[in-house]
Design a protein that fits this description.
The complex is a heterodimer of chains A (135) and B (76). Chain A is of the alpha/beta class. Chain A is built from five helices and six strands, in the order ββαβααβαβαβ. The longest helix of chain A has 15 residues, at 20-34. Chain A has one domain (10-126). Chain B is of the alpha+beta class and 76 residues long. Chain B contains three helices and five strands. Chain B has helices at 11-27, 39-44, 68-75, and strands at 2-6, 32-36, 49-50, 52-55, 58-62. Chain B is globular, with a radius of gyration of 11 Å. The A-B interface holds A 1-6, 9, 11, 39, 41-42, 45, 50-56, 59-60 and B 6-8, 10, 12-13, 39, 42-43, 45-52, 54, 58-64. Strand 1 of chain A pairs parallel with strand 3 of chain B.
């Protein structure tokens, strides 16, 4: 949903890649959105260069990317438009590409670990256990 | 030219519409101005922060009210 003239806009993007970890990235992003962590928008719109998505990313206070693996397509898609996101790469949280079914308990656990890291830092890769703010 | 103001209808959205109409009048250009308040139409543009000004389908500015001169540059 769009906010009218409000500050503190935090947007979240999932890579939603074809591998199991891409699917998990999508589910984690949606769960974080539902928890009020950030508002979710479409990475595909950014990658396609659609003006509304690009300007939204540029205008947001914080952009957060959830990538399934180290290829980090979501992070790189934002960097291409000059936006440095706070980046989470799920394989750095211990899940293995190709060997991790998208189960509820795995998604919930990853969400909890991301939330435990506190405020994401724009332009930084958020690693497990590296708290960057208050929780 | 089609100009669209995206926003739910708050004072700032209305201000952007007023300024856009003023810019169009002063420039003497032929433009249709629509105020889009439907949230699905707004998010369909990918716009997450309003108000926004769209020219012929391209989002020119969002989340702020540009000055009259800035609007003239954006739509020229």
């Amino acid at each position: 949903m769009s906010d009218c003239c409000s500050g503190g806009v935090r947007l979240i993007y999932a890579c939603s890649g074809s591998a199991d970890v891409g699917q998990i990235a999508d589910l984690v992003s949606r769960k974080l959105r539902d928890a009020g962590y950030a508002r979710m928008t479409c990475l595909a719109g950014v990658a396609a260069g659609l003006s509304g998505f690009v300007e939204s990313a540029r205008g947001a206070d914080v952009n957060i990317t959830i990538d399934g693996c180290g290829t980090a397509c979501a992070k790189k898609a934002l960097e291409r438009i000059g936006v440095m996101p706070a980046s989470f790469v799920l394989t750095e949280f211990g899940i293995v590409k190709g060997k991790t079914p998208p189960m509820d308990e795995i998604v919930s656990s990853l969400c909890e670990r991301i939330l435990q890291q506190g405020e994401p830092s724009p332009g930084a890769v958020q690693r497990p256990g590296s708290r960057s703010g208050t929780c | 030219m089609l100009l669209e103001i995206l926003g739910s209808g708050c004072a700032k959205c209305q201000k952007l519409e007023d300024l856009t109409r003023q810019a169009v009048n002063e420039m003497g250009v032929d433009a249709q101005i629509n105020h889009v308040k439907d949230i699905n139409a707004i998010t369909g543009y990918g716009v997450m922060i309003t108000p926004a000004l769209v020219k012929d389908g391209v989002v020119k500015v969002m989340g702020k009210i540009p000055s009259l001169d800035e609007i003239k540059k954006l739509i020229s």
